[in-house]
Specification:
The complex is a heterodimer of chains A (about 325) and B (about 425). With about 325 residues, chain A is of the alpha/beta class. In chain A, about 35% of the residues lie in helices and about 15% in strands. Chain A has two domains: about 140 residues, Rossmann fold; about 130 residues, Rossmann fold (3-Layer(aba) Sandwich), CATH 3.40.50.1370. In chain A, the strands form two sheets. In chain A, strands 7-6-5-8-9 form a five-stranded parallel beta sheet. In chain A, helix 1 packs across helix 12. Chain A starts with about 20 loop residues before the first helix and ends in a 12-residue tail after the last helix. Chain B has about 425 residues and is of the alpha/beta class. Chain B is about 30% helix and about 25% strand. Chain B is built from 13 helices and 19 strands. In chain B, the strands form four sheets. In chain B, strands 1, 2, 3, 4, 5, 6, 17, 18 and 19 form a nine-stranded mixed beta sheet that branches. Chain B has a five-stranded parallel beta sheet with strand order 10-11-14-15-16. In chain B, strand 3 and strand 4 form a beta hairpin. Chain B starts with 5 loop residues before the first strand and ends in a 6-residue tail after the last strand. Classes of the chains: A alpha/beta (about 325), B alpha/beta (about 425). At the A-B interface, helix 4 of A face helix 6 of B.
Chain lengths: ~325, ~425
Amino acid sequence: MANEGRTVWSHRHLLGIEQLSASDIENILGTASTFKEILGRPIRKVPTLRGMTVVNLFFESSTRTRISFELAEKRLSADMVNFSVSGSSVSKGETLLDTARNIEAMKIDMVVMRHSSPGAPHFLSRYLSSQIINAGDGAHEHPTQALLDLMTLRERYPSFKDLRVTLVGDIMHSRVAMSNILALKKMGARVAVCGPSTMIPRDVQTLGVDVTHSVEEAIQHSDVLNVLRIQLERQQAGLFPSVREYHNVFGITRDKLSKAPKPLTIMHPGPMNRGVEIDSDVADGEHSVILEQVTNGVAVRMAVLYLLAGEGSELGKPIVT
Amino acid sequence: MEPKWTNASALWLKNARLVDPGSNLDEMGDILLMDGKIAGIGRVDFAEFSGKILDVSGKIIMPGLFDMHAHFREPGREDAETIETGCHAAIIGGYTGVAIMPNTTPAIDNVGIVRWVEERAQGLPVDVCPVAAVTKGREGKELTEMAELSGIGVKAFSDDGAPIPSSQMMRLALEYSSMFGVTIIGHEEDKSLAAGGVMHEGAVSTALGLTGIPGISDDIMVARDLILLEYVGGKFHVAHASTARSIDLIREAKSKRLAVTVEVTPHHISMTDEAVRSFHTSTKMNPPLRPEQDRKALLQGLKDGSIDVIATDHAPHSWEEKEREFDLAPFGIIGLETALSVVNTFAVEEGYMSWLNVAGCMSQNPRRIMQQPDVTLRKGEPANLVCFDPAKSWIVSESDFGSKSKNSPYVGKTLKGKVVGVVRSRKTTIPIER
């Protein structure tokens, strides 16, 4: 039932949005809303992935993404194991490849992977026979974050076509920005990036986005602001002079938003620095969808796990058996 | 794989295309090798010849190649390459001479280590010329004992692998080295701009989330060093130039008759930063692969003669060092075995270089910069040549390499033209029936 009217899923891994087509994204979003409905039931668990083993390989700390994947795996009845850097063999000097191969030798089916190196999951996909889901690779991609962002937008807007989304903040170091740009462009949205010129990556226009350094201008011309976390250590690297100045110029405040021709939807991938890139009254305001994003994260990750598990079989596995 | 040598004390190679910049020769003919020397060249007829005769129709014969930029990792990283295995790679690639860089452990920065390296190279079929470090330990702080080092035959100095960050130190290096007529080879990189970078900065690095090394980090150092060269004199050679602007700066300096020369690598004329999209670490080197407009500018520089040398920057790394996360892997690829094939495929076949030009950039010019005796195809000269089949297409495989390491971006790729073998003195690697 889940696959009616959708294209057949044909990807072995989810390495990035890069490899997905618009219809793949539609497929994930559609599947995710089915799962969201299940998550609203009294018993929020289905046996779909029973017998499958998923390893969450987190080489970089994460709270929300890891818990979101864990819940998604548990609600699909998969067996799951967490691996995190502390206390692992990585601290004893084992290579990424050896670590991954050793875990795979224990007979697993899927790896959910976060790593600080761009392309780390792509690299492992050449060696592992397990399926890989990229849960964030350095400043490259974070595909499930972009998918949950799109799901959240889908629930509020009839179409992505010509929806104006501006990503605000440190674009250069943001995998959320890259995956959002790719996904939104594929779905026909108009995407802009806004941030200090020192944090806009070189030649970003080649991705088909507009660039502005004025939050005021972005607010005038956007339907949605996706506010990115500013890492405070970037200030030490000299990319902006002070947190105070960053907040003054790029912080999203009620005052700046009051100039908008119509209310903007406010998103943030978390974790937030309240009072820096976003003010509390905006983050908690009536147009904020930040907690909906988190809720949708579980549904989107269930959809991705489900579709990957069905890869190879023509119809996929039924969601409810 | 090791090159296979057979006796060539009497060998008649017939119907070759003979290319020799030393005698401005590019014509069809034969070459006769007797007792390690060229006994005849061109139209020769020997009714009484009793040695081996080989028809090499369609093949090119040139003076043995010379690579003025290789890393043989000895001493210190013999697991990745030794002087001996590096020479296997050289011979397979058609090289009979190499200059090896001093970024070993310890660095080649004193007479003792130079002597030791020369001893290790004794009896090998490749002339091995150690380049010594500019500064002690390659730390950029104190000059090496250049008088003593040049006194035992060192012709060039380089801290390659790293730039000389201090302008004052570079000034002193050019000034001091000028007393001995030796060359400073510059690894041109402004580390404050390049810090943390792992590939070219541009659209591709942005798409991949990898930290970029902007082209201007090279250009700024080239500009600085050319200004210093003009001010204090000396001889200066720019290693592995990778950008259009670096070539422009050098072209301008040459028009002012500054003593500057420049090399480019086969990979920078054949690949662009687009290749990094695979996240294969065999596309990671320093300077990084640049965009198409830079690649084209390098080819243009070869065509118009602004570029003197094609050098490999042969940089072996062990499998486990290289086969890892892209940003954590070391820079560098091997190149000796594939260099001439890459140059044929991307420069000759594309109309940027004549064979005389190739022989100039890969044999004559680097030997002259390194102040080695010319190798030519003249009668009476020692037998030292490479035979190349420009028509043979081949798929590069790890089993083709003589190097201990296999970190080449060309594995699995098809290249046009292959080295048939070399002749060195009384021996040859050209396959000959016994």
